[in-house]
Amino acid sequence: MSSRRRITSFHRIVVLFIVLSLMSVQGVVASAQTVELSVWSYLPPDDPSVTAYIEAFQQQNPNIVVNYTAYPESDYTDKVRTALTAGSPPDIAIIEDRAWMKAGLVVELTDHLAQWGVNPADFNPGGMARAAPEGNIAGGIYGVGDFLGGNVLFYNKALFDQAGVPHPSAEQSMTWPQYADACRKIGKPDRNPANAVYGCSADPAHFGIWQKWLFGGDGRTASGNMNAAAMVQAWDLGTALVRDGYAPTASLIQTMPFGVSDLFAQGQIGVTWSDFTEAAKYQANGIDFGIAPFYVIEGSESFVDTWTSPWGTFRDSQHPAEALKFLEFIATDAQYLRAETSADPPLSTTVAQEIGWGSDDPIKQQYLMVLQQAKPQVFIPPLPEGAYDANEVFRQLTVERQTDSRPLLDQAATTTQPLLDQAWLDWEALTPAQ
Amino acid sequence: MAKAVVEASIPSDAGRVWRRTAATMRVIALYGAILLLCLFILMPIGWMLTAALKPDTAPVFTFPPEWFPTEHWHWQTFKDALLNPAQPFLRYALNSAFISLMAIIGAVLSSSLTAYPFARLQFRGKNVLFTILIATMLLPGPVLLIPQFLIFYRIGWYGTYLPLIVPWFTGSAFYIFLLRQYMRTVPSDLDEAARIDGAGYWEIYWRIILPLTKPALTVVAVFTFLATWNDFFGPLLYLDDQNQFTVALALATFVRRVGTEWNEMMAANLLSIIPVLVVYFLAQNKLIGGIASVGVKG
Amino acid sequence: MAVSLRSRRPEHAATARATTGRNARNEERAAYLFLVPWLTGLVAFLVIPLGWAIWISLTDQRLLVDGQFVGLDNYTTIFTNDPVFNQALGVTLRWVLFTTPLFLVTGMFLSLLLNQKLPGMNVFRTILYIPAVLSGVAVGILWLNLLNPDLGAVNYLLYEAGVDNPPYWFSDPTWAMPGLALVGLWGVGGTAVIYLAGLQNIPPQLYEAAAIDGAGPLSKFRHITLPLLSPTIFFLLLTGVIDAFQMFGLAFVLGGGADGGPANSLLFYMLYMYRKGFQEGMLGYAGALAWILTVIGLATVWLLFKLEKRFVFYETQ
């Protein structure tokens, strides 16, 4: 009798082990007819545009089921890269790393676009440049974008008027001296951030927002550009603003969910930068704002940075035919859906004109006007650790409170030039594997 | 401190008064120091609570900082943190709870199963195996990390809870040692008595030893709970799908994400702390006793 | 369970002990059956990984791509061509050497304070132990905000106390580690409680006897408290050093992920290993890093055990 009881007790534990191992068995349901298209990106699954695309695409193609996976932005590129290295990439992904394009891992689309009756010239050139390995679509188009993103300046009209500073022009970028001057006139520094009014923001990444300023027009010359007089001036002026309290510090920005955008929405900052998706928030908060092109270093033309997130497919993807269908969808129908489901204009200028994007909204019209100052961005191959790090220079000037940026930028230029040369060599050595 | 010197040199009456004053001052100083330290511990937690009770419209960071909630009692923030569709901490808490529960079952079972033969049975190789047991307590973890990861990855357990749970079912050296020490204090007459009645080793283990080891088992359970609830590294390595995240992993992932509302983050942080505090307060005597006994015996 | 009166008689107790052949084998078999989970775990999660770990560190293993044997390449790169490794090692060693004595000494003083026979000490002990049960992530998130340079409570207090330019804490390479140490100090109650147990194990008669002999408090501390507390100190030193080498969670939160803080000032060894192995995917290289840490750790532990022989006094001696 006792031995029978012993078995039952042991039995329970054995059953527990079995249950646990069964949990690892995954049921696989495969249908011969439907194709499962794997789509990866960093946009959350409830993103309105993404949901609209998936729904519409699946309706048009009943035999294709979209399996959408979202990774947090910080992990996304690593995840795709890992899958690529293993030879099992997703069918569709946002092509973040242009080295993949250069190495021939991404399917080239020029011929396909012609087949679909899509003219590349219809799309905004600034955005399209992101779909080409070096920014030149003549060398190959490797992705299709659905929206036109643009970083522009937003300024608070009331604060400008109060300080008696003329509004920034929508047709001409302010230079750094002009920008800093306006900032100091508008800002009211205060130890207590709740009471302070900031004139403007000085973000380390934006001293070189047009990479031409840092690396020259060919993207290969750091020395002489990174530490040019105009660049030194920009850094000196910008970081002085932070040190003196006219521009918010990085740690202050960290305390706000959306950074400087929140400050602007609260009416506490005179000028900030953002892409167009934030405009609705400012409107909702009753801020009377205007839009202007980005500030530039002295002697530079006006500038607005435009971009897109190109969707593409990989050479090693499992379902090439279906993937191309998806890309065709992005290039055509998705443009209209994007305009309906997001604040951005579609990447296709033709579509934007066709639907009269912004014709009903003066803010949108102002945005379009400012976008005319967009210039092609210069391509730089990825630089290794140790090269120019804007955050590091910024930290030395604001946290360590150094006041002279010249030696720091000279140093950065000297260290970066050889690394840049090597990076170009590595980049050019990237050829499609046979 | 001043006592001995004072006793020797001042005549009795004045001496008594002086002594009492010195003693009182000493007590006041001690209490003062302790209270300051307790404030050092409690005020940050109070700040967190204050921040968590603020609505989205109120600034979380104020000048001067608010240490205790006075103006805002917006309990809704906790609900928002739990049910936020983009980062539902309720789900993460349930995930953590599941993992902890399974780990506790595994730890209690496997550690006691392993401790029992070391405490009660004779067998060849007992000393060797016991030395090995002690040695594994000192083994640094990092070197096992990568091969373990690869093993789990290869057998398809990546992206599941299995790598976080199954190892708990194979015994942890620290708990085994603790339980073995405790089991040895259980009088062996009871064993003998049961054997006479025809009980096998399993019965003795299951019906006699285990119930009598309950206090030590509680310590094991509490420790395991703390270890798994707070564990961040394991989930970081093995979990991919955001819906599977544990509380600790979710907190660490979302903390610097653009768009994170700080009041909600503080609420979520507090939510992660509350179960731990509850368990701690309920079990503190056993817990501190358990830790202390290891520290003292070395 | 009912225990029959019959079994209380000593003769039965003697024969119940299994010393004879068949019973001994039964006992042995039963023992090993009980040990199956642990032994399985040993093999699956210890022995096999340990062996494989040696192999991995000698290959260029990546996550999904099997490694080719590269001999000692990983190790040579680490030691000759990896400035980040030097940084990570430096940060970790600095942390171990700087904070271990700090926490040990502070913990001891705190325990002396808690050891006073005053009412309510239990409550204080409970409160002071709280940080020790909280997760590194939760503590990190809390202090990330308390030590915010502009709006954090700590800098506010410093400013009010007259410090014009309070440190930038986790934005400043010079102050990042001290900031981390401050967070560690917040949790020193954990160490204090263990000391406390050790203190309470010292028989008060020893102190009384010493007092009669005219010993002052300092002398009592040196000749009674310290020696009798030395096993506890040793235990805390050992665990403290091992923990310090493996610092990860807190640094992850405070340093912004595996980035390692401003100018890599919080790039602890484990963070670097995680970054190399799981973000950059170079598992072979990370395996070599792991071995180097292990060797350093074992060497330190060995050193500490040598110190134990010299300095730690066990009552049985």
Structure notes:
The complex is a heterotrimer of chains A (434), B (298) and C (317). Chain A is of the alpha/beta class and 434 residues long. Helix content of chain A is 44%, strand content 9%. In chain A, helix 2 runs antiparallel to helix 15 and helix 8 runs parallel beside helix 10. Chain B is mainly alpha-helical and 298 residues long. Chain B is built from 14 helices and no strands. Chain C is an all-alpha fold. Chain C folds into 2 domains: 47 residues, no CATH class; 230 residues, MetI-like fold. Chain C contains 14 helices and no strands. The longest helix of chain C is centred in the first third of the chain and has 37 residues. Chains in contact: A-B, A-C, B-C. Chains B and C meet through helix 2, helix 4, helix 5, helix 6 and helix 9 of B and helix 1, helix 2, helix 4, helix 5 and helix 6 of C.
Termini gap of chain B:
32 Å
CATH topology (fold) name of the largest domain in chain C: MetI-like fold
CATH top level label of the largest domain in chain C: Mainly Alpha
Return the average pLDDT of chain B rounded to an integer.
86
| Poorly predicted spans of chain C | 1-16
What's the tally of helices of chain C? 14
Name the CATH superfamily classification of the largest domain in chain C.
MetI-like
The CATH architecture category of the largest domain in chain B equals: Orthogonal Bundle
| Cα-atom radius of gyration of chain C | 26 Å
The amount of beta strand of chain B, in percent, is under 5%
Q: How many strands, what sense, and barrel or not for the largest sheet of chain B?
A: none
Give the count of structural domains of chain B.
2
Order of helices and strands of chain C: HHHHHHHHHHHHHH
What's the name of the CATH homologous superfamily of the largest domain in chain B? MetI-like
State the oligomer: heterotrimer
Total number of β-strand segments of chain C?
A: 0
CATH architecture title of the largest domain in chain C:
Orthogonal Bundle
